[in-house]
């Protein structure tokens, strides 16, 4: 078995949740927050058979969209210099950051 952990944007969570349910993929959804943007994102945890991993990845891929976002850096003037402080930075967020890890044991009591 494998644990598929997928961090996706808040905006895509509802669609992915429905798609996983429709395809009978068991999932736990956690509210999370990115360390860089400090914006809410959603983390899905799915323990699935090895043979289902590629299918689950394809569902995530079909749902999660990459988006461009402008941010104002909050780094102090001394570190960045005055010009950098004024300019917002464009970053591309998502679609999904996915980790697949082996599960040594799986129990449900
Ligand atoms: P955040 O940490 O809020 O990052 C949002 C986006 O900001 C990232 O999108 C990336 O495009 C950019 N970014 C992050 N750190 C940066 C930096 N030091 N300099 C410049 N730009 C930076 P994604 O890469 O698509 O990541 C989306 C979210 O996935 C992240 O939100 C974080 O919650 C999670 N994530 C990404 N990589 C991770 C990792 N290695 N381990 C755990 N979580 C991760």
TrEMBL record:
Q: Which SUPFAM superfamilies match?
A: GlnB-like (SSF54913)
Q: Which Pfam families match?
A: CdAMP_rec (PF06153)
InterPro entries assigned to the protein according to its UniProt record, in alphabetical order? CdAMP_rec, N-reg_PII-like_a/b, N-reg_PII/ATP_PRibTrfase_C
Quote the PANTHER family the UniProt record gives: CYCLIC DI-AMP RECEPTOR A
The protein, known as? Uncharacterized protein
- Tell me what organism the protein belongs to: Holzapfeliella floricola DSM 23037 = JCM 16512
